Amino acid sequence: MTLHLVLPHDHAFSPEEIAIMTAAHLAALRKIGLVSREDPATLAIAKAIVELAKQGERDPDRLCERALKFWSP
Question: Is 19 a domain residue?
């Protein structure tokens, strides 16, 4: 899973928080129709979700929407 590649070593997330971020990441990829995990957008969206979570966002729907706005090409 791409999300695990970008989880920071200096910030601890609980298993529940990681599950929320994973759900948001998968939802974002579905919304834009991204299937290939090799696409650079996959990593960019994962990074955006982690950054938003570090700022305190925990709602998966908001994480998804905000990450897509942050990433928007």
Answer: yes
Q: Which tokens go with 9?
A: 């070593």
Q: Where are the alpha helices (DSSP H) in the chain?
A: 2-6, 15-31, 40-54, 60-71
The predicted model scores a pTM of 0.85
d(CA 53, CA 33): 23
> How buried is residue 6: exposed, middle or buried, by Cβ count under 10 Å (0-12/13-18/19+)?
middle
**What is the structure's pLDDT at 7?**
74
Is 5 among the domain residues?
Answer: no
- What's the structural domain count of the chain? 1
